[in-house]
Design a protein that fits this description.
With 438 residues, this protein is mainly α. It has a domain at 7-63: Rubrerythrin, domain 2 (Single Sheet). It is built from 19 helices and 6 strands. Bound molecules: acetyl coenzyme *A.
Length: 438
């Protein structure tokens, strides 16, 4: 049996049941066990049998699917894609190989990878109409909604009825065109001419070329920068059922196509509590630097229950230990700054801030540690990426994860449209009152 199939079979094995008592009824509910030992109670029968639903705002305790893509142990700080440690992938794989792994479940053979890379490389251009489309947006538009709008608009160019082949083509187009869209959005904000993709560059080098070259000056892509960018994309490539991925699944569950679902995922990622935090982190460091470099005042505000300020890049719904991506990025950050011979006061501020919080009972008791966004922004800055575009870099990285999750959902034997329930707390039935009587 292939490792994937073996793991899936193992995941079905639990003979246990859980009991729930509602009023005078006791219900036996099936227990599901994952391949890494996580347990879940299947409450599917609860409402049918008792009329009750479960309540879990923010879905902190609700499993929405079975998934064989990404494993996280938030207590131990472990993250694996298809069983492979992300640290190994970031060191030894490439972003496109990792994308293949996430989407297909196994590492590619050499031929599979060569064909995939060639396919992606050949589809990097955007239809020329997109220049007018993006030009019509204001110069100061944030690149995230520009990307969401453009990815959504791809649907209007590729209208084939959905089939396995059309989905395969959509996957190639999305992965190929995302960097072009991101670079176009950046060039638009500068008022500079768009730079066309180069098929002789690898994925990350091509993105850097499109962002920083101009028609009047050649631009030499630094291989150190391209390698760091590729590793960043790998570290962001999937993170199981987070806000944007759940959005992609929910939108896709209505049978909306891949472009529409991914466009919704980009919008969800933009929020400052999710991917948008990487921009907010650097803005926070800059604010601390402007205030003289002492983070204590900022930390005091983040701890004050009456102040909505949060320490950006800190805390995580799942990690109650150091986020393994942040651990990797902290070291990578130092290495990249050294290699590029850049000194950045913000790295000192980040490290100082982290040191204080690791000793502060507020953060220790709540198990709040740096997350992926805490150090990624400092690296992006060193690589020359503008702050506004940080979350776009995250979106490029997360794309294969969204695609893999969308595909998995569509092939799930338990597939149903996503549709949470609610407990209604509004007015009881009442008669309409005409304007004169109000
Ligand atoms: N700064 C200060 N206090 C915090 C922070 C923070 N960054 N994060 C959580 N807390 C506190 C909360 O106030 C709460 O305290 P309380 O128990 O006294 O009320 C406690 O820690 C638990 O926090 P919740 O909000 O319940 O945690 P939740 O799982 O809902 O939120 C989240 C997780 C959104 C990531 C949160 O930690 C946060 O807002 N962090 C800052 C934004 C950020 O960095 N987001 C990126 C996350 S990674 C990603 O999406 C790619």
């Amino acid at each position: 049996m292939a490792p994937q199939a073996e793991a899936e079979a193992q995941a079905q094995d639990s003979q246990d049941t859980a009991q729930i008592r509602v009023g005078d009824r006791t219900l036996d509910l099936p227990v599901i066990q994952g391949t890494e030992g996580e347990m879940a109670v299947d409450i599917g029968a609860l409402r049918k049998e008792t009329g009750y639903i479960t309540m879990d705002p923010g879905f902190g305790n609700t499993g929405a699917c079975r998934s064989a893509i990404t494993f996280i142990d938030g207590e131990k700080g472990i993250l694996r894609y298809r069983g492979y440690r992300i640290e190994d992938l970031a060191e030894q794989s490439t972003f496109l190989e990792t994308a293949w792994l996430l989407i297909h479940g196994e590492l590619p053979t050499k031929t599979e990878l060569d064909d995939f890379v060639e396919d992606v490389t050949k589809h990097t251009m955007l239809n020329e109409s997109f220049r007018k489309f993006m030009d019509a947006l204001p110069r100061d538009a944030h690149p995230m909604p520009m990307c969401a709008a453009t990815v959504g608009a791809l649907t209007t160019f590729y209208q084939q009825p959905e089939s396995e082949e059309s989905i395969r083509q959509s996957i190639i187009r999305l992965i190929a065109k995302m960097p072009t869209i991101a670079a176009y959005a950046y060039k638009h904000s500068l008022g500079q001419p768009f730079i066309y993709p180069r098929n002789d560059f690898d994925y990350s080098s091509n993105l850097i070329h499109m962002m920083f070259a101009t028609p009047c000056a050649p631009y030499e892509v630094d291989p150190v920068v391209a390698k760091a960018m590729d590793a960043l994309f790998i570290l962001h490539a999937d993170h199981e059922q987070n806000c944007s991925t759940s959005t992609v699944r929910l939108v896709g569950s209505s049978m909306a196509n891949l472009y529409a679902s991914i466009s919704a995922g980009i919008s969800a990622l933009w929020g400052s509590l999710h991917g948008g935090a990487n921009q907010k982190v650097v803005e926070m460091f800059e604010a601390i630097e402007r205030g003289g470099g002492d983070p204590e005042a900022y930390i005091a505000r983040a701890k004050d229950p009456d102040d909505p300020t949060r320490l950006m890049g800190f805390g995580h719904r799942v990690y109650k230990n150091y986020d393994p991506r942040a651990k990797y990025l902290k070291e990578a950050c130092r290495q990249v700054l050294d290699r590029l011979d850049v000194s950045d006061k913000l790295l000192e501020i980040a490290q100082g801030l982290e040191e204080i919080t690791l000793r502060d009972p507020y953060f220790v008791d709540r198990k709040l540690y740096p997350n992926v966004d805490f150090y990624s922004g400092v690296i992006y800055r060193a690589l020359g990426i503008p702050v506004d575009a940080f979350t776009v870099m995250f979106a490029i990285g997360r794309l294969p994860g969204w695609i893999a999750q969308w595909l998995e959902m569509r092939h799930d034997p338990d597939f149903r449209i996503g549709r949470p329930r609610q407990v209604y707390t509004g007015a009881n039935e009442r008669d309409y009152v005409g304007m004169d009587a109000r």
